[in-house]
Amino acid sequence: MAQNKTAFVLSAHSADFVWRAGGAIALHQKKGYAVTVVCLSYGERGESAKLWKQEGCTLERVKTERRKEAEAAARALNVHDIQFFDLGDYPLEIDREAKFRLVDVIRKVQPAFLMSHSHYDPYNTDHSHATRLLMECRMIAQAWGHNPGQKVLGAPQLYLYEPHQTEQMGWKPDVFLDITEVWDNKRAAIECMAGQEHLWDYYTNLAQNRGNHFRRNSGGQAGGRNARYAEGFQSVYPRTVDEL
Ligand SMILES: [Zn+2]
């Protein structure tokens, strides 16, 4: 078991972390990491169509419902800490104050790795804004001249989790993570997203397909591990290693 290890996951909207990184979160919690999730918005305007179709719906009600769903999903994944910045969505707009707020969280957490959306998303610019923000905040958190005296950030890897239509996003995985042992947690978290039931089976199928890719790349056909569910990630920075 890792001791005092931490990880940080950024989610533009309150459900994104569930579909895309729920397995990684639950798995690392199980391995002894404390995972912090920051949701920049609730996806209240852009990713809550089912709620808006109810009569008399208000923005505040949608935000409350989305927050409840995300908190329930976080419990299913055993998330250590989930924070909601409530910056608004469609469009997600990030000012200097929000950047420094995020830097404060990252410096406090001192994560072993970071996770966020793909670099590019022509359907949803909030997603790519979130990743640009995280790369900027990673840089600021590393700067000795920012709030001198605080512990600066090292150089944690940034893993881009899987977007909805991978080919359209220019996203190409270079890591597959076996999430079979925590799949039940991820499925339970997925089912907390009552407003997006149309995605439940889609992301179950995706995890099974990535499980196939895990086996393909790990020698599974030759008697390797029988990973049934996996998540794919694209890493942003080079790794520094002693052996290949
Ligand atoms: Zn989203």
From TrEMBL:
Superkingdom field: Bacteria
Pfam families xref list: PIG-L
Gene3D superfamilies, alphabetized: LmbE-like
Protein name from the UniProt record: PIG-L family deacetylase
Organism: Azospirillum oleiclasticum
